[in-house]
Amino acid sequence: MHHDFMFATGIENSYPVIEVDGRPKRIDQMQKCGHYERWREDFELVREMGIEYLRYGPPYYQTHLGPGQYDWSFTDETFQALYEMGITPIVDLCHFGTPDWLGATFQNREWPQFFAEYAKAFAERYPWIRLFTPVNEIFIAAQFSAQFGWWNERLCSDVAYVTALHNLCKANVMAMRAIRSVRPNATFIQSESSEYFHSQDPHCEPYAYFLNHKRFLPLDLTYGREINAMMYEYLLDHGMTREDYQWFRDNNVRGSCVMGNDYYWTNEHSVCADRAIEPSGEVFGYYVITKQYFDRYRLPVMHTETNTTTERSVEWLRKEWANLHRLKLDGVPILGFTWYSLTDQIDWDVALREENNRVHTVGLYDLDRKIRPVGEAYKKLIAQWGGILPTASATLRPFL
């Protein structure tokens, strides 16, 4: 049965470069989680769940070998299998890393053009694909790489952050435009972490206010939305030019976009008196924060990522679903829901900052491909809701 509503999962395919024993090392989640050997089995599990949409992408750093040079061997095999199995991919083209030949960094101003060429080459090679996430979680990619010093360029400054943000957003928009040039009916499902910063006391209010505007910058730039004076000054003070900013106003393709919101219990933060940020846990939850993003951008919405570890996962799934369903009943055009990812992950308990090879038990299946309780619960949820969800055809048909 084909569902209008997009129930999805994903194959976790992050590949940032981190420092291990003083040397740079690529951390490839598809390799760590056994997907390169077991991809056929993984796709069968997707089908077994009753899931028709899969967030999935080739390992960008292995596929884009140089300007105009691509190795499509793994991609040809896997995407042909998805096509034959009737699984619709939401294609994830850049997931937290760039190829070594580009410096494995988001600081390279030449990268957006090369990435757009890669995106166009992909779209030309697989003409049946219509759903894309060109650059995954720009907020996280820029912050972890250029503000926190954890991944890729491993820098810690506002100048580095603004440079990474600029390049990531520009790559995202240029890729969308490049794909549209060969696939005019393509739809772009952003996958962006939805964040909120709570102030611990009145003295923290100004900084929390700043951070609650800063969280919107990746989508503001991607969608060409006018930003306030405080954010404009922040960008210009840290290396973006007026021309750089104007480019986003002139080049966005928001009319072809679905706003994907990712929500985890780590997405809400507490701002302390010394400007330190601590985890607050879930205070507002998916409903409140997604509504803030929807009110700002007025685009169709998809819940593109959520998970938690085994002991809380079934309860978390039910709660996320209840939040999403209530949003839908309250008039927000919600097109889909995603439990991310299909299998457990490795070292995401420390945000891939360290290589401990520790299993993070957040999958629908464990790494032996045995179903977890949350897998059973999600399978049941899809069976129950798949045929009756009020996905107004008016909101969805233009996108599929």
Question: What features would you describe in this structure?
Answer:
- This protein is α/β, with parallel strands linked by helices.
- The protein has a single domain (6-192, 298-399), classed as TIM Barrel (Alpha-Beta Barrel), CATH 3.20.20.
- Helices cover 42% and strands 18% of the residues.
- The protein has 15 helices and 18 strands.
- The protein has helices at residues 29-32, 35-48, 60-63, 73-85, 111-125, 138-147, 158-182, 205-214, 217-222, 229-237, 242-251, 285-297, 310-329, 373-385, 393-396; strands at 6-10, 17-20, 23-26, 53-56, 64-66, 69-70, 88-94, 131-135, 187-189, 192-193, 196-199, 257-262, 268-271, 277-279, 301-305, 334-339, 345-346, 359-360.
- The strands form 5 sheets. Strands 1-4-7-8-9-12-15-16 form an 8-stranded parallel barrel, surrounded by 4 helices. Strands 11-13-14 form a 3-stranded mixed β-sheet. A two-stranded antiparallel ribbon has the order 2-3.
- Strand 15, helix 13 and strand 16 form a beta-alpha-beta unit.
- Helix 5 runs parallel beside helix 7 (158-182) and helix 13 (310-329) packs parallel to helix 14.
- The two termini are 16 Å apart.
- Mean pLDDT is 95; it is low at 391-400.
- GO terms for molecular function: hydrolase activity, hydrolyzing O-glycosyl compounds.
- This is Glycoside hydrolase.
